[in-house]
Specification:
One of its GO terms (biological process) is methylation. By secondary structure, this protein is an alpha/beta fold. The protein has helices at about 10-20, 25-30, 40-50, 75-80, 95-105, 145-155, 185-195, and strands spanning about 65-70, 85-90, 110-115, 130-135, 155-170, 175, 180-185, 200-205, 215-220. The structure holds S-adenosylmethionine. S-adenosylmethionine (SAM) binds near residues 96 and 118.
Length: about 220
């Protein structure tokens, strides 16, 4: 299966890379002008993640997390570094990773690796991560690349580890955005891709208190 709406894969990726090269390396840039909802986003994500960290035989470890499509490290800084001993970041835009080194401040010492790479070409080190966090970036991968990437993420998990996708979901079908060269899929399409990757959804939650005019945002945890 390939993404029905992506006609030219090479162009799809190169247009997106070009788009992000021109975006300011700021929290507002990461959020397309919606920087002010970053705290609401992070606070909900923290609550979501902490339910997997409570006592119990299945709780996730706190050794290492991977932030995918990390940008300048908005999530690494406020969600992942406070909860995990070390974090790795991967993003296709070199300038964002360079900016991250100052944006993250002192705590940024605990970022082990800054991988500059498209997720379609990236393989997390096997058996390494307690959490692989993938936020506001799945629309930049074709269906096949997303499913293959999720398979590699699955292999990258430590025992009890989880992969988390947090992203915009269309009401129905798949919508192409020519401006940043991305697609927005509905929840059913995303769930199918997850299943195809051999992952099982453990929890799913709609983000509350976001502005009405933007896409619904869902968080899905899987392993
Ligand atoms: C909307 S921003 C989200 C950044 C971060 N996840 C956050 O929520 O603050 C999208 C990010 O995805 C990155 N990106 C776009 N296409 C990518 C790809 N194919 N592989 C990896 N990163 C990509 C961009 O450089 C940008 O940093």
């Amino acid at each position: 299966m390939t993404s029905e709406v992506v006609e030219n894969e090479l162009e799809f990726y190169s247009k997106a890379e070009k788009y992000w090269k021109d975006v300011p390396a700021t929290v507002d840039g990461m959020r397309g002008g919606y920087g002010h909802i970053s705290s609401i986003d992070i606070n909900s994500s923290r609550k979501f993640l902490q339910r997997f960290m409570r006592d119990g035989s299945n709780r996730i470890g706190t050794t290492r997390a991977l932030d995918c499509g990390a940008g300048i490290g908005r999530i690494t800084k406020r969600l992942l570094l406070p909860l995990f001993k070390t974090v790795d970041m991967v993003d296709v835009t070199e300038d964002f990773l360079t900016k991250a080194k100052s944006y993250l401040g002192e705590e940024g010492r605990r970022v082990r690796n800054y991988f500059c790479c498209g997720l379609q070409d990236f393989s997390p080190e096997p058996n390494t991560y307690d959490v692989i966090w993938i936020q506001w970036v799945i629309g930049h991968l074709t269906d096949n690349h997303l499913s293959d990437f999720l398979k590699r993420c699955r292999a990258g998990l430590r025992p009890n580890g989880i992969v988390v996708i947090k992203d915009n979901m269309a009401q129905e079908g798949v919508i192409m955005d020519d401006v940043d060269s991305s697609v927005c899929r509905d929840l059913d399409v995303v769930r199918k891709i997850i299943r195809r990757a051999g992952l099982y959804v453990l929890a799913e939650e709609r983000q509350e208190n976001f502005p009405d005019e933007i896409y619904h945002v869902y968080t899905l945890a899987m392993r």
